[in-house]
Amino acid sequence: MSLTFPARVLCKGKVPMHRPLFSSFRFIYDYAHLISPEGKARLEKFLEHIWRDYDIELIAITTPSLGNYTVSEWTNMIFEKWGVGKNTRGDKGLLFVVAPRERKVRLEVGKDLEGIFTDAFVGYIEREQMKPFFEEARVGVGVEATVELIVSRIEKSVKEGRYLPTEGRRQKGSFSSSGAGAQKDMDIGNFIHQKKEAVTEDLKSYFCAQPMPQLTLQRYLQVCRRHIKDPNLGIYTEATKEFFRKWTVTNAQQDNEMMYEGIPFKLAIEGNYAVIFYPDKDWTYSPFFLKKGPAGWQLDFATMSEVIRFNQNNYWFFVSFNHPYMFAFREYMIDKNGFVWFKYRKK
Amino acid sequence: MRQGQVVLFLVGTLIVIVAALALWFVWVYNGLVASEKTVEEAGAQIQTVLQRRLDLIPNLVETVKGYAQHEREVLIAVTQARKKAQGVLEDISKKKSLGKEELGALMVSQRDLTSTLKNLFALVENYPDLKASQNFLALQDQLEGTENRIAVARQRYNYAVRMYNTKISTFPGNIIAPMFGFVEKPYFEAKEKAQEPVKVTF
């Protein structure tokens, strides 16, 4: 995909000044043809959930050209003309614009969302989450990964009582956006693969397999804190190293892992397998799988990524029970959607 | 008898015409008032976002100070320009009017502040640790976001002024405007355009 996209950008497709009445998608408008059909379908579903669950209308537009406007002017113009956020109880719109030719990305924030999506936050997710994906020309995945951070921000705000999806009132005749948000320069498809710097030998021996599973997790959190991207660390199993070589790791994802720091956990060990999980926390805290090798305990992200998925609220669930780590959840109820109910123990 | 009817008819017609004129008069007058109110609201929004910009600066100065204490001149210049701009903004909100003079003073004070900020950002180039720190990056995002808000507010203000000025200078507004002291309102121009590393719009 990354190789074919420059030719596709040349296809002209003008962005209309009014939201199209008939369109196959309601939230995704890919005029620059950057996102695959499957990617679009998945994102559309995701964004619809956000609109339903949180009363936030996020529209994503890719445009082949910005005309003579700057990305900020263009985004603000489209925000008002399309009435982004008009389908919510207030001005709760988000407009995400990708302009590959001008190498610009902007996320504009509607008036009633300025409190939770500050300019600094928007700048941060663009810089630390979106950019690495976009540079690999993985636009659809990049938008999705960014929306995930947006969701966890909303979830947090809802929990802290700073955002109430059911509140808000339309003000007639006023503007929907006062120009909040952030823009960034991005070379889309500049790098085919993310450059992952190797760590020094000293660090390598520090981040080796550990004698206890919780120590391995501790080292992993240190890796995240230091934004280390090197996949060849001793704390990972061989399959995990292979997985991370292909995976795009961003600073924002690593910052997000810091939420596990200092959280009380439960440890279950059976033979060479261990699970660290968080029965006192909600489903945004997914478990860690560890495997014992000859050198010690190693994190098994390869299996985790295969059998654990996250829904639109960032809640984790199993898509497969066919793996050696199921033993840890034996005594808990698991519903047909794969969610583990730690509250309900089996007798 | 016949003559009386004619007079009555004429008087009646006159009353209807006068009433229609009065209604029309009120309608045009209300249009002008509404238009003026839009301009005032847009002006207030400009002041809000300018204040937002000023509020960010002490934090910025503190952050830069942490890495570059001995660059005192530049930092002091920024602080002084900010203080001056704050004074102008406070004067205007006390006066509650945004005439040509006030707008002029506002523009000058903001432009002075912008040029000191440019020096500050040029200086930051020499401190890679500062430039890469999360705190500074966040401040830069906030400043850029605020400057975009200023651009948006200014554009909306100028649009409202254009609508209003057109109304009072064309028929029927040009008849009614002088009677009630509606005068032309000044535009808020931006002289300087985007400069790296931070987009500055004054």
Termini separation of chain B: 76 Å
**Shape, principal axes of CA atoms of chain B:** rod-shaped
Please give the number of β-strands of chain A.
Answer: 13
Supply Rg of chain A.
Answer: 22 Å
| Amino- and carboxy-terminal Cα gap of chain A | 51 Å
> Spans of chain B of 5+ residues with little confidence (pLDDT < 50)?
192-202
What percent of residues of chain B adopt helix (DSSP H or I)?
over 70%
Task: Describe it.
The complex is a heterodimer of chains A (347) and B (202). Chain A is of the alpha+beta class and 347 residues long. Chain A has ten helices and 13 strands. In chain A, strand 3 and strand 4 form a beta hairpin. In chain A, helix 2 packs parallel to helix 5, helix 4 packs antiparallel against helix 5 and helix 7 crosses helix 9. The N and C termini of chain A lie far apart (51 Å). Chain B has 202 residues and is mainly α. Helix content of chain B is 81%, strand content 0%. Chain B contains six helices and no strands. The chains are: A alpha+beta (347), B mainly alpha (202). At the A-B interface, helix 3, helix 4 and strand 5 of A face helix 5 of B.
Summary of the model, kept short:
The complex is a heterodimer of chains A (347) and B (202). Chain A has 347 residues and is an alpha+beta fold.
